[in-house]
Design brief:
mainly alpha, elongated
Amino acid sequence: MAKLRTPRTPSSNYLRRMAVRDAERIAATGGARPGSGRPPLAGTKPEMKSVKLSREHWDLARRIGEGIMAEGLRRALDAYDIDACDV
């Protein structure tokens, strides 16, 4: 009968090398990095949603938001007069 081997615990040097390799891979391909992303909006708790719009609508949102699509959508919704609708 074959003798069962106990799994080896990786050495701290190996773990350090893997962490550096992973950090280099993430930095080269994108992904989460310290200091990346936009700062949160003041006084709000944003919710993430997926929205399908035509290319023309996304281009318009980008123009309204001065290059930032989400900001363009926020500005358009803030400027929308709900009382002028039949909704």
